[in-house]
Amino acid sequence: MCGIVGYVGHRRALDVVVEALRRMEYRGYDSAGIAILDGQGGLAVERKAGRLSNLEAELDEIGEEHFTGTAGMGHTRWATHGRPTDRNAHPHRDASGKVAVVHNGIIENFAPLREELEKSGVELASDTDTEVAVHLVARAYEEGPTAGNFVDSARSVLRRLEGAFTLVFAHADHPGTIVAARRSTPLVVGVGDGEMFIASDVAAFIEFTREAVELGQDQVVVITEDSYTVTDFDGNSEVDTRPFTIDWDLAAAEKGGHDYFMLKEIEEQPAAVADTLRGHFVDGRIVLDEQRLSDQELRDIDKVFVVACGSSYHSGLVAKYAIEHWTRLPVEVELASEFRYRDPVLDRSTLVVAISQSGETADTLEAVRHAKDQKARVLAVCNTNGAQIPREADAVLYTRTGPEIGVASTKAFLAQMAANYLVGLALAQARGTKYPDEVAREYQDLAAMPEKIAELLTGMDPVRALARELSDSPAVLFLGRHVGYPVALEGALKLKELAYMHAEGFAAGELKHGPIALIEDGLPVIVVMPSPKGRAVLHSKLLSNIREIQARGAVTVVIAEEGDETVRPFADHLFEIPSAPSLLQPLLSTVPLQVFAAEVAQSRGYDVDKPRNLAKSVTVE
Ligand code: M6R
User: What's the rounded Cα separation, in Å, for the pair 469 and 464?
Assistant: First the structure.
């Protein structure tokens, strides 16, 4: 959700912090703020509601000379407690103005702490849960056993906090030190030469260093220009951390000539799928190299649950069809937010596949924890190296898309589907439900998909033209069957989140059970057709559905396999996709829907990278 950065080094902190916020603005953009330590006992803070550009305009007006210093921190906010106003923007300060904090997450026990502070005469200046932390640290620094010790003061307060949080503290009297801590929300350290960084995401410091350290749960890190020290909340230094080298570079986090990251990320999908598959088929066998589940463990599995949120959930719905077909194992796909509240039946022989681009989604993380408590095996499909979900899972399969900055999932969604297919084939191979030559054939089909996606992407102009034509529609419906049904759901989600347009996805077979009542003259209905060869029966049923809606005045927009002539007479607009095996078709049919949603949103004047009210990583429930 919120993006956090801290810096101590030799550069002008203002530049480092603002640039880092720009790279993390996708995490939240309700407000932004900075705090710069001038090295002489001063702490300059500025914060502003709205996009980072509002803060930058404010900084220009004030003058950069007021923000000298080589240490500081910054924050880009996605509001949880308190409206997105200037006064609720981070950093928050104590009454003396010497201590500052930025925060991602929720301090669940903030109400009693606030009451305690107010009773002792502290006046709080915001409506946030965050502000209590800075007053408590200031008080611990002023009086009691930790008086005069900034780091111990911070640790003593952290021990009192409940919830999920990343917190960063700065103190004007300790200008060469930044203290940060994490519990269940992300924080990584960037190790530079004579400079140290802490941030929610490595994108914040990739320009300066690719050496990073992943922190564990309930850890505190203290950075100075030439050191980082990690302890637990009690100050014990025997803690688990994991140094790693970031395997992508600055260019991957830039727009590369596109107006929006999302448009670049749509174009990157062939590479995202190819990179995700790369190295996973060796000597005729599927190899999940990051996997820590043995073949025997895979053989012992008798049921699969897939848990995820949003687009990741839709990728899981596609996975169900493939895994059940290839392995004959029952697969249930569940929204992570529902999973642990309904007491699902799990045991040692259950495999839970947790899909998350960010690896931070709070609901998915809690679902993983619940599954592990019930002794189920957990396999994470994740795009973010070292995030909390893969850390806590028994096994992980990384999608290798590089950073996805646009809030709407595009290349990560396709890469998740590719990874899920690999999981299905690995299970089929281990369990012997497919012969090796069959697994090899399925993999070859999968490996051929990036080229088809690339071919499809070259023909998107008619989709964009139609999107502009339909951009004033009050609503759009999406229909699909079999694997086309999750694609319909994903198409509707893209349109809702980007274009703020009413959009619904339906299983076409349900049409006559209610949704057909929505059809009226001129309503655009996008239909994802199955292959006429691979799914002939479903194809003819969908054809009937198209006739039914067309007869009632709908504008039919049909996504169909190239050469599918039967559908042409009933399609007001027809978009062809390359031919592919039925189960893999979502890797293609999703693409025009992404392009359509992005173009409608742009026609309506919206920022497709930062849709209103959304954040890239939903780290609170
Ligand atoms: O990081 P995750 O994959 O766990 O995120 C899940 C959803 O929040 C995410 O897919 C969301 O639905 C996207 N905005 C969809 O475009």
Answer: 9
CA 311 – ligand 1 centroid, Å: 5
If 0-12 CB within 10 Å is exposed, 13-18 middle and 19+ buried, where does residue 145 land? exposed
DSSP β-ladder status, 196-199 and 188-191: antiparallel
Q: What is the pLDDT of residue 291?
A: 61
For residue 337 and ligand 1, the question of a CB distance below 6 A is answered with no
Residue 311, ligand 1, Cβ within 6 A: yes
Per-residue pLDDT of 555-602, as tens digits, reads 999 999 999 999 999 999 999 999 999 999 999 999 999 999 999 999
State pLDDT tens for residues 171-196: 999 999 999 999 988 899 999 999 99
Assess whether pLDDT exceeds 90 at residue 29.
Answer: no
pLDDT-derived band at 441 (thresholds 50, 70, 90) equals very high
Q: Stretch 325-338: mean pLDDT, rounded? A: 96
Q: How far is Cα 505 from Cα 528, in angstroms, rounded to an integer? A: 10
Question: Distance (Å, rounded) from C-alpha 415 to C-alpha 121?
Answer: 54
The per-residue pLDDT for range 236-294, each reduced to its tens digit, is 999 999 899 987 777 777 776 788 999 999 999 999 999 899 889 999 999 986 667 88
**Order of strands, edge to edge, in the sheet holding 331-335?**
331-335, 303-308, 350-356, 377-382, 395-398
Whether 512 is catalytic is no
- Report helix, strand or coil for 190: strand
The domains found in the chain, sorted by start residue, are 3-249 (3.60.20.10), 261-447 (3.40.50.10490), 458-603 (3.40.50.10490)
Ligand 1 contact, 495 CB (< 6 A): no
Question: CA 81 → CA 105, 119, 205, 399, distances in Å?
Answer: 10, 21, 28, 33
- In the beta sheet, which residues pair with residue 109? none
Residue type, 343: D
Q: How far is CA 137 from the centre of its chain?
A: 32
The answer to whether residue 2 is catalytic is yes
pLDDT given for residue 317 in this prediction? 98
Q: Count Cα atoms within 13 angstroms, Cβ side, for 217.
A: 10
Predicted local distance difference test score (pLDDT) of residue 290? 63
- Residue to mutate, 334, 361, 409, ligand 1, most ligand atoms under 8 Å from C-beta: 409
**Residue that the structure tokens 């030190």 belong to:** 177
How far is it, in rounded angstroms, from Cα 251 to Cα 606? 25
